[in-house]
Write a structure and sequence with these properties.
Enolase-like, domain 1; four-stranded antiparallel beta sheet; Uridine Diphospho-n-acetylenolpyruvylglucosamine Reductase, domain 2; 14 strands; 37% helix; globular; 3 domains; five-stranded antiparallel beta sheet; Uridine Diphospho-n-acetylenolpyruvylglucosamine Reductase, domain 3; binds flavin-adenine dinucleotide; alpha+beta
């Protein structure tokens, strides 16, 4: 199919892009990598009156070291995140997850701002932003505001943006952890995840001092499992820890059934991935020690 008619503008500043969105009275759409939006236009599931193309705006694509945080411009492509040495050294879970994002051609065009705004519950970057507790900077006609990732994702394919707001930057706090893992199952490599988990830990004394857990594909939004983090710290480390951890993680989710998988199957996958992820995370702390 072909899209319905739309106007097109290519502003060179964020302010001009916002003006174009305001002028469209809620009928405009921002265009970033186009990898999710263009299929929606072609299927006529979206019929914007105007496309506001961000690609002509200089200075929206960067990966910047800010000490305890890494700032990423909204127009940064997936492929740049995948190959960034800075991301590999400071945000290793993101680095490991990026090769699971779609296929090379899509990673060449897709952007972090587009992925977050599209808010697919089985997409890696939304999950990573929940995992790292990222702050999402949003610009609109009334200036700039920042929201936590967990506030940004409202429902499947639904975010908290007003129609005339644009995501401009995402700040990821660097975790002071010494072991981590990212595990995912998709029907084919590069497809959206059926289930996935990210785990990161810091060892201390005979147990764990800190833990971070996020999952995707098992709810309408990506989830950071804060209760499970506390329960993992309380478990202590022993032979049965991965098994118990898996039960804890699975008890925190209620996946939906859809044409890709039943709810039970997604839970089963998440349980297996949880065991594997914790074992890998713990093994990597031993390598660091
Ligand atoms: P666009 O398609 O340009 O825009 C998507 C939406 O976000 C639109 O509503 C647009 O208006 C809005 N938007 C874009 N940028 C902004 C902004 N800065 N501020 C406000 N709103 C904005 N993704 C995964 O994570 N994992 C996968 O496994 C995966 N598999 C895929 C497989 C296929 C076959 C395809 C086609 C896509 C897949 N994707 C996957 C999605 C891909 O990562 C997209 O690139 C991404 O979701 C959207 O990014 P984009 O820059 O292309 O955004």
């Amino acid at each position: 199919m072909k899209p319905a008619r739309f106007d097109y503008v290519s502003p060179t500043t964020v302010e001009a892009a916002i003006e174009a969105l305001v002028a469209s009275n809620g009928e405009g759409k921002v265009l970033a990598g186009g990898q999710s939006l263009l299929p929606l236009l072609n299927f006529r599931m979206a019929r914007p009156s105007i496309l506001v193309d961000l690609n002509g705006i200089a200075g929206l694509a960067y990966i910047e070291d800010r000490g305890d945080r890494i700032a990423i411009g909204a127009l940064t492509r997936h492929r740049d995140l995948e190959h960034s040495q800075l991301v590999a050294s400071r945000l290793p879970v993101m680095s490991a997850a990026m090769r699971h994002v779609a296929h090379l051609a899509i990673r060449n065009r897709g952007t972090i701002g587009g992925s977050l705004s599209h808010a697919d519950p089985a997409a890696e970057l939304p999950m990573l932003s929940a995992f790292y507790d990222a702050r999402i900077a949003i610009q609109g006609p009334n200036g700039r505001r920042a929201v936590a990732a967990e506030t940004f994702f409202v429902d499947a394919l639904t975010n908290c943006l007003e129609p005339d707001e644009i995501v401009v930057e995402i700040e990821f706090p660097v975790l002071d952890h010494d072991g981590w893992a990212f595990e995912e199952v998709a029907r084919r490599f590069g497809d959206f995840a059926l289930a996935s988990i990210a785990v990161s830990v810091r060892r201390g004394g005979s147990g764990l001092e800190d833990a971070r857990i996020a999952v995707m594909g098992v709810a309408d939004t990506p989830l950071r499992l804060r209760e499970a983090e506390d329960e993992l710290l309380a478990l202590g480390l022993g032979d049965q820890t991965p098994e118990r951890f898996s039960e804890i993680v699975v008890s925190k989710v209620s996946p939906n059934e859809d044409l890709h998988a039943s709810a039970e199957y997604r839970k089963h996958l998440l349980g297996e991935l949880s065991k594997r992820a914790l074992r890998t995370a713990l093994a990597s702390t031993e390598r660091v020690a």
